[in-house]
Design goal:
The complex is a heterodimer of chains A (328) and B (269). Chain A is an all-alpha fold. Chain A has a single domain, classed as ABC transporter involved in vitamin B12 uptake, BtuC (Orthogonal Bundle), CATH 1.10.3470.10. Chain A is 79% helix and 0% strand. Chain A is built from 15 helices and no strands. Chain A is globular. Chain B has 269 residues and is α/β, with parallel strands linked by helices. Chain B has one domain: P-loop containing nucleotide triphosphate hydrolases (Rossmann fold), CATH 3.40.50. A 6-stranded mixed sheet of chain B has the order 6-7-8-3-9-10, sandwiched between helices. Chain B is globular and about 50 Å long. The chains are: A mainly alpha (328), B alpha/beta (269). Chain B: Its EC number is 7.6.2.8. Chain B: Belongs to the ABC transporter superfamily. Chain B: Required for corrinoid utilization. Probably part of the ABC transporter complex BtuCDF involved in cobalamin (vitamin B12) import. Probably responsible for energy coupling to the transport system.
């Protein structure tokens, strides 16, 4: 074993747990946690450290960079996968809305911790509030006269308003903890965060694989799907919940403000390339992966914000594809 | 057997009535044309027939079951006005859309040989097999509407409901499309067509229902042409003139003594 490999394995085991680590028992059993530890240490750590040795890029051997890369690899899959069922229904802002309500969830969890001493993991707070917000948006559209864009705007601003009020109630004391969720960070992605991402990634990919046909039918022609007696409301609820999962699991590295970009930008890029919907899904995932990996690399090399770097690379990819198509 | 049965059906948005007191039956194998002025409730009535909305009064039955409880999705197919922006922008192929017709029968399982044969036969039947791998958004309006009819054929649907399907088509494509509908109806498929062009409906349909919130006429195209229902429903002095569509079933078009020569294709109801 080379030096970097040994260093990575040791460091991975020594990674300190953040408050979000307490989420792990909620998501996986002890046995699965052990398997994940082995996967993170032996498979991911080994592979990246081998790459570090081969390429001479030392940062590939750093455990926090390995976690960052694994995170964006997961986000690059689940973001476009779910986003493909949002973008074509003019629901691109759903991800942004749920991210801002997830911010309220983080603020609520930190507020409860600061004022009542209740140790609620911030990402759990984010997940609960984002799922509730997703259902509220759906109810607003179904049961009121609200247009979907107006409903999204109301929930988005309402979520962010709640978060800002909760922060002010603590005299700004929790704002330091909030910042890493607002803007994202490479360095603060913990092992538990990666565990959450991988777990939710498996749930999202499995759900989309099982419900692919109803999802694509409802996305393409909701009225015809209803006439054919597909359970459109259930499909919409599933899509909302999956979007909440993606947003919450990715917000630690992307940041609340930018997390929605990977639900939208790779999908729009892929829509110009794919000849079929399945092919577009594949291209969307590839675009997401490229943006994630390149963005994290650029962020590390130049000391930039990870979320912003990833989004800018994704947008550059869109511009390149659009220009290429125009010239072709 | 009756495909659709409406009994004293009313529907309103809040206090605003959209349709009121509609009673009519659509026997299996019938080609019913639904006509009426803009905002007369034609599209709403179609959604009520399909059980997509529940009436505020009265009863809607679909194949002898309450429409809102009707579960045999494969028996019913719906074709909207020209495709939405979604259908134009979404990178989906003709084959992928036609396969959707099989989803009510096979939503989660592996596609069987019967499923694949039904899709291939539907593509052949509407003469778009050579377009199967093209993106729907890249097709002409007439080709796109054929794709949606192919989806209904793949479903092996018994009832085809269409809401002004030819709004965006040129005259030639429109004629070809209605020829296709006529052939499907001759083959036994029940067709309910919402259409703003009364000439087309009276020429193609076996029965006409003319409404403007309430039902002004329900009967044969010949009786419709001879009746004063058109003027009563549209609120203008109008009559149906004979003219040749070149397909022989019936001829006619609406002429107004005042107002627009043709109803607005957008039915907001």
């Amino acid at each position: 074993m080379t030096g970097p490999v040994a260093l990575a394995a040791t460091d991975l085991l020594a990674v300190e747990f953040s408050a979000a680590d307490s989420l792990a028992p909620l998501l996986v059993t002890d046995a699965l946690t052990g398997v994940f530890d082995w996967f993170l240490t032996a498979v991911v750590g080994g592979a990246f450290s081998w790459l570090a040795g081969v390429t001479g890029l030392d940062f590939l051997g750093y455990p926090y960079m390995q976690r960052a890369y694994l995170s964006v690899l997961c986000i690059g899959v689940v973001g476009p996968l779910v986003g493909s069922f949002l973008v074509y229904r003019d629901l691109s802002m759903v991800g942004d809305t749920l991210a801002h309500t997830a911010f309220a969830g983080v603020a609520l969890a930190l507020f409860l911790d600061a004022t009542l001493g209740l140790a609620v993991p911030p990402l759990l707070g984010a997940l609960v509030v984002a799922v509730v917000a997703a259902l509220v948006v759906q109810a607003l559209v179904e049961y009121t006269d609200a247009r979907s864009d107006a409903a999204l705007a109301m929930v988005l601003t309402g979520g962010f308003a709640l978060g800002s009020v909760l922060i002010s109630l603590t005299g700004g004391g929790i704002s330091v903890g909030i910042n890493q969720y607002l803007f994202g960070s490479l360095a603060t992605v913990s092992r538990a965060d990666v565990g959450l991402l991988v777990s939710m990634g498996l749930v999202v990919v499995g759900s989309v694989a099982v419900a692919y046909r109803p999802l694509v039918y409802v996305t393409f022609d909701e009225t015809a799907a209803r006439a054919s007696r597909l359970h459109v409301r259930a499909v919409n609820t599933l899509l909302s919940v999956l979007t909440a999962f993606v947003v919450v699991s990715a917000m630690r590295i992307m940041g609340v403000i930018l997390v929605a970009a990977l639900l939208v930008v790779p999908v729009v890029t892929a829509s110009r390339l794919g000849r079929s919907f399945k092919q577009s899904l594949l291209y969307g995932v590839l675009a997401g992966e490229l943006a994630g990996v390149a963005g994290v690399t650029v962020a590390y090399l130049y000391g930039l914000a990870a979320g912003g770097s990833i989004v800018l690379v994704a947008l550059a990819g869109f511009v390149a594809v659009a220009a290429g198509r125009r010239l072709a | 057997m009756t495909a659709v049965s409406l009994s004293d059906v009313a529907f309103s948005y809040g206090d605003v009535p959209v349709v009121d007191g509609i009673s009519l039956d659509v026997p299996e194998g019938e080609f019913l044309g639904l006509v009426g002025p803009n905002g007369s409730g034609k599209s709403t009535l179609l959604t009520l027939m399909l059980g997509l909305q529940r009436p505020t009064r009265g009863e809607v039955r679909l194949f002898d079951r309450p429409a809102h409880d009707f579960a045999d999705g494969e028996r019913v197919a719906y074709v909207a006005q020209d495709v939405t922006r979604t259908a134009r922008d979404m990178p989906v192929t003709v084959r992928e859309v036609v396969r959707m017709g099989r989803y009510p029968r096979n939503l989660f399982g592996r596609f069987s040989a019967a499923d694949r044969e039904a899709v291939a036969a539907a593509l052949d039947r509407v003469d778009i097999a050579d377009l199967a791998d093209r993106r729907v958004g890249a097709l002409s309006g007439g080709q796109r509407q054929r794709v949606f009819v192919a989806r209904a054929l793949a479903a092996e649907a018994d009832l085809l409901a269409l809401d002004e399907p030819t709004v965006a088509l040129d005259a030639e494509s429109r004629e070809a499309f209605y020829d296709l509908l006529g052939e499907l109806n001759d083959g036994g498929m029940t067709v309910v067509l919402v259409e703003h062009d009364i000439g087309v409906v009276t020429a193609r349909a076996s029965r006409i229902a003319c409404l403007n919130k309430r039902l002004y006429f329900h009967g044969s195209p010949d009786d419709f042409a001879d009746s004063d229902a058109l003027a009563a429903a549209y609120g203008a002095n109008q009559r149906v003139l004979d003219h040749d569509h070149g397909h022989g079933r019936h001829h006619g078009r609406r002429e107004e003594s005042r107002g627009h020569a043709r109803t607005d294709p957008e039915d907001e109801s």
